[in-house]
């Protein structure tokens, strides 16, 4: 089945729900806020080690190369944890899966305050990664099923901007904590805040009504009521193309995002630009990535999914091409207008990837029925985790190759028509 036809059909069914569908009163604002805060805390806890790395290296007397596996442990855990979180969200409930994920990485983040060796830190970061990864699918599924149909694009937009917002907040958090205490205490506080959030969500956030309905259907006495289509998995004939195409797209989007956010400053400094310019470009990238989220949510209310994907994808590729062409021009790296253009095009890449994240996050939540939604989101998101690891592992090799062949870049620039 064509992915756009399938998605349109599901969306049309959602729009036809009763008017009372969704949260009411204060919960209509409180619950989306708490779920968005869960993703924000996920981003904060994921990045705190990156900000504390110089202090950890000094205490353990380690080289950057030797510490690399410790940093990568969380990413590996996220690859494993994401599909697990999708499955548990459909099997045991969105709310339970969310709370367990928060407790898992909240507790292990607290325990980082007591590690004595890099091996202990690596093990805890891997377990934390399981929690980081398993949180995303049930959160997106629950948000989709609790808010009203017309507000779902904006609801997924809140979640989409949560992780980069948490990463940015993590920098401010670590700056504040390290000014008054050490890195160990910073991890303890971050973990404690995560545990408190898990308790609040358990007490306040309701379980998905769609999951409760599916739980009744899965009961042995009523299982015969399920149709053969209802028993179909995410790799069945109806959903196979959706699952594979969205996962592949997520690999590309996350690959670009990880390359830019993790290696962007290195690209600038290797090309002869000041480090401050690379840091500024990184801030603009994240700012525009967050800012485009709601713009795309508005666009999706007026345009088809296919049109939105084509527009956002074309914009992203064009931004990458424009930045690459500007980087090839090394005639005057001190030129202020040239530097402004570099930062601007770098930021436009963030706008494009942020838009693509929003489109496919929304698409993954509405393309599956309730009993497959969390699993489907988990599989698609796991593609992004793989793309991130490829970027982390392959980015350095690409930069080394580029530094070894400066004549290649110069010759390609000279060959362009004037």
Description:
The chain contains 15 helices and no strands. By secondary structure, the protein is an all-alpha fold. The protein has one domain: MFS general substrate transporter like domains (Growth Hormone, Chain: A, Up-down Bundle). α4 (94-111) runs antiparallel to α8, α6 (152-160) runs antiparallel to α11 (275-300) and α11 (275-300) runs parallel beside α13. The longest helix is centred in the last third of the chain and has 35 residues, at 370-404.
In round numbers, the mean pLDDT is 80
Query: Could you state the CATH homologous superfamily?
Result: MFS general substrate transporter like domains
Q: Briefly, what CATH class?
A: Mainly Alpha
Estimate nothing, just give the exact number of structural domains. Answer: 1
Q: How would you classify the helix and strand content by structural class?
A: mainly alpha
Strand percentage: under 5%
Largest sheet: none
Give me the number of helical elements: 15
Reported CATH architecture:
Up-down Bundle
């Amino acid at each position: 089945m064509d992915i756009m036809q399938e998605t349109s059909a599901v969306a049309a069914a959602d729009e036809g729900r009763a008017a009372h569908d969704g949260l009411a009163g204060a919960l209509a604002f409180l619950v989306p806020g708490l779920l968005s805060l869960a993703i924000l805390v996920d981003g904060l806890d994921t990045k705190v080690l990156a900000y504390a790395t110089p202090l950890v290296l000094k205490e353990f007397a380690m080289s950057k190369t030797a510490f690399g596996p410790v940093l990568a442990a969380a990413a590996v855990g996220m690859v494993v944890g994401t599909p697990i979180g999708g499955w548990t969200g459909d099997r045991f409930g969105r709310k339970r899966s969310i709370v367990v994920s928060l407790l898992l990485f909240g507790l292990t983040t607290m325990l980082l305050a007591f590690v004595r060796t890099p091996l202990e830190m690596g093990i805890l970061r891997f377990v934390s990664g399981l929690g980081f990864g398993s949180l995303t699918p049930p959160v997106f599924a629950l948000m989709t099923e609790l808010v009203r149909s017309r507000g779902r694009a904006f609801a997924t937009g809140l979640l989409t901007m949560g992780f980069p917002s948490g990463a940015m907040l993590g920098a401010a958090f670590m700056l504040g904590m390290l000014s008054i205490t050490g890195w160990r205490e910073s991890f303890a506080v971050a973990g404690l805040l995560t545990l408190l959030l898990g308790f609040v969500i358990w007490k306040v956030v309701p379980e998905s009504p769609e999951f409760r309905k599916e739980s009744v259907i899965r009961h042995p006495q009523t299982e015969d009521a399920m149709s053969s289509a209802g028993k179909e998995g995410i790799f069945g004939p109806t959903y196979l193309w959706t699952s594979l195409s969205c996962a592949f797209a997520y690999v590309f989007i996350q690959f670009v995002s990880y390359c830019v956010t993790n290696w962007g400053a290195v690209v600038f400094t290797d090309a002869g630009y000041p480090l401050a310019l690379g840091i500024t470009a990184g801030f603009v990238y994240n700012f525009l990535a967050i800012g485009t989220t709601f713009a795309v949510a508005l666009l999706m209310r007026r345009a088809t999914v296919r049109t939105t994907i084509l527009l956002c994808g074309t914009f992203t590729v064009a931004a990458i091409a424009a930045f690459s062409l500007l980087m090839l021009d090394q005639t005057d790296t001190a030129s202020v207008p040239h530097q402004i253009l570099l930062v601007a095009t770098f930021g436009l890449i963030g706008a494009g990837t942020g838009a693509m994240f929003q489109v496919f996050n929304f698409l993954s939540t509405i393309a599956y029925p309730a009993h497959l939604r969390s699993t489907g989101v988990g599989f698609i998101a796991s593609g992004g985790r793989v793309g991130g690891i490829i970027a982390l592992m392959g980015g350095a090799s690409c930069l080394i190759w580029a530094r070894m062949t400066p004549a290649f870049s110069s010759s390609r620039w000279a060959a362009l028509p004037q």
